[in-house]
Amino acid sequence: MRRAVLSQALKSLARRAQAASRPSQSQSQIQSRALFQRPALRVFSTAAPQASEEDAAASVSVPVQAEEEQNEDEDDIGRKLKPREVVEQLNKYIVGQADAKRAVAIALRNRWRRQKISDELRQEVSPKNILMIGPTGCGKTEIARRLAKLSEAPFVKVEATKFTEVGFHGRDVDQIIRDLVENAINMVKKSRKERLRKQVQHLVESRILDVLTGANVTERSRATFERLLHAGELEDRIIEIDVPAAKNPSGQPISFVGGEGKGISMEVIGRAFGEKKTERKRMTIAESRGVFEEMEMENAIDMTDVVREAIQETEENGIVFIDEIDKICSSGDYRRSSDPSSEGVQRDLLPLIEGSVISTKHGNVNTDHILFVGSGAFHSSKPSDLLAELQGRLPIRVELKGLTEEDLHRILTEPVTNLIKQQVELIKTEGVTLSFTDDAVREIARVAAEINQTVENIGARRLHTVVEKVVEDISFDSSEMTPGSTVTITKEFVLERVGKLMKKTDLSKFIL
């Protein structure tokens, strides 16, 4: 009874908090994003005497958030997206390519600036989409990966070659927006769970005590179990609990005409008719905490409200990164192609990037203000080979430079997660200290640059090949070395290990 009352109070609190934090139409959209704060719960100890529903409701307090704190949150969001700070963050992981970093930093900041202007003008300001052009291995995809972490917004990275023209078997480009919405839902749901995590601890303990003590128990016995539980003396005890039945991994949704993502699963049908499948499992109390915590948060979160906020986040702050966009265009001599992954996909992308309404199973999504970033190497084609209409929808063009020997050396030493540090830490797990001399690192960069020039230029990816070849024997033997031993890699050692690679490079010049 007590657990049901507390659970109902938590649900009521969640609804009231959301209603109180929902801004009016005249407020900027960024407020609705920043002001959602789940208030903290204050629940009386489960060892207290039985309380009525009124007492349980009274035990839940909603601290009033000051206006200054709200403004501080807004300013904090803007501070994180300042262009100079975005570039500084990217510099920790990516060497060079200053123009590309500045372009994406400005684009991110403009998303925040748009939220601060009047409602009437906000609807007219559209994002300036970006086209990044550069050889393979120069950092285009890495910029996308880091951008996803910095943006704090719905983000999806797709490969242009995975889509086909509408009417052909395969994924159509509308699936990009459906994936973006799913990512937004997961992001919003995760955020709310983090805010509720501390607040459901009392409910979790109450449910564990219910399982331990049963229904007919005296307050003294319950208080004893509660004291032992808080002391951590019951964590290894085995209990049986009812948990939601595991989802069937092979249960595919029933699809309708219109492509992937427009189906309905049997799980949804079961929920519609009130079906709740559970199964009984045995686990320790320590393991049950996470299960109970997840169940309580699922009960407290209103998925209808989560979906509504996720769609709003997608429309206002969504970012789509389309990689390998050069692979869906043909050179001028072969413009008329029957490939369903070529020009047809470009034509399908036009309304998506320009702005249209995409139907998803969660509702309609307007793409007018979603930022699109395209990237490609354009080895066998030129950016001008893209459809003229698509070029016009990607107005910001950024060219990334190929990597020199000095750039490769910087990649090996400057990023916080560089390849040299990765190898040192991996070998360190075996109790062996691995070190590289500066001459050895420079020799690795020189060899990688030379192979790129003589065989095929794959940019920074060549460093993986060379470094792995250098440390191959050490990685194999390190588990059998004496703990505490030290291995130093010198320039001579590098030349000895990569000599075969260099010979193969010389021979490849004479092979047709």
Automatic annotation (TrEMBL):
Q: Which GO terms describe its biological process?
A: proteolysis involved in protein catabolic process
Which InterPro entries did the record assign? AAA+_ATPase, ATP-dep_Clp_protease_ClpX, ATPase_AAA_core, Clp_ATPase_C, HslU, P-loop_NTPase
**Which keywords does UniProt give here?**
ATP-binding, Chaperone, Hydrolase, Nucleotide-binding, Protease
Describe the location of the Clp ATPase C-terminal domain by residue ranges.
403-495
Limits of the AAA+ ATPase domain: 126-404
Any one GO cellular component localisation term in the record = HslUV protease complex
Domain of life, source organism:
Eukaryota
Which Gene3D superfamilies would you find in this protein's record?
A: 1.10.8.60, P-loop containing nucleotide triphosphate hydrolases (3.40.50.300)
According to the UniProt entry, which residue ranges have a biased composition of type Low complexity?
47-62
Q: Which SUPFAM superfamilies match?
A: P-loop containing nucleoside triphosphate hydrolases
Q: Where is the composition biased (Acidic residues)?
A: 66-76
Q: Which residues lie within the region annotated Disordered?
A: 47-78
Supply the Pfam families for this chain: AAA, AAA_2, ClpB_D2-small
One example GO MF annotation: peptidase activity
Question: What is stated as this protein's family in its record?
Answer: Belongs to the ClpX chaperone family. HslU subfamily.
Record NCBIfam families: hslU, PRK05201.1
Q: What is this protein called?
A: ATP-dependent protease ATPase subunit
Classification from the root reads: Eukaryota, Sar, Stramenopiles, Oomycota, Peronosporomycetes
